[in-house]
Amino acid sequence: MSAINGNTTVVGVIGDPISHTRSPAMHNAAIRSLGLNWVYVPFHVTPENLPSAVAGFRASGVRGINATIPHKEALIPLVDKMSPEAEFVGAINTLVFEEDGRIYGDNTDARGFLRAMEEVGFPSPKGSKVVVMGAGGASRAVVAALARAGASEIVVANRTASKAHRLADELSDRMGVTACGCGLDSAGLLKAAEGSALLVNTTSAGMHTHDALSLPDELFAPTMRVYDIIYAPPETPLLRQAANRGCQTLNGLGMLVHQGAIALELWSGKTAPVEVMRDALIESLA
Ligand code: ATR
Predict the structure, then answer these.
(1) Exposure string (b/e) for 168-182, b if CB count within 10 Å is 16 or more?
(2) Model-level pTM greater than 0.90?
């Protein structure tokens, strides 16, 4: 890293806890590669200190901040304007402190999800039916991205079916996309997946050895792409099952890299060095 001096620009990430974050490794590698006189710093901010921390960042000329658990929702009332994705998701993961003092909030998870798909050659969701498993915060980012990308129909499938119905209703009301909800039972899923181009998992099931989703093999038509936003382990039982059925698969590492790349681009106006960021992230996960 170049020496910090009087002209160094500060960006960073807030969370509680924060010590687990991989973002500094990824962003500082990108900063070095771009030759910027910047530094990306982790900040441990507790919920009660969030408003004063944000005001302090603005007052100190910090350029941008990423937010992780538990701050993403609580940032909403603290910004002056936000992207449509952040508005629909109800969560902000990136703050931009603009020169006129205004604070812009974005949710780069949504566009990061799409860019990672494009990168591996998954077809655009435009005009396609897609199935998204899960109805929590991560699902909101994914369905918002798919709706904005022009998916023709979104089926939200969730263990608690009532939450799937609620999210689907909200999607059709607020984003004007055809959407419906169902449970995660085999019958519901098989019907949902008929003619579907893409199946996405946004639930945490599959992160640990004991909690894999139990899905019927017939769900996986070989032409359907299967995208799990989990990145550790790199191959969840869902992705293994899909690959065994001949489906093209994708894990969540690319989404993590691209949400960071988009944040860096918002702050710097430069194209992010995606490969550098990916290598640094993989190294930090090892
Ligand atoms: P996140 O922000 O990561 O989406 P969340 O808002 O807590 O986290 O949502 C977790 C999602 O994972 C929910 O859709 C949850 O299903 P329920 O609404 O039925 O709780 C889903 N989920 C978590 N563990 C799961 C499991 N073992 N099987 C199926 N779904 C699971």
Answers:
(1) bebbeeebebebbbb
(2) yes
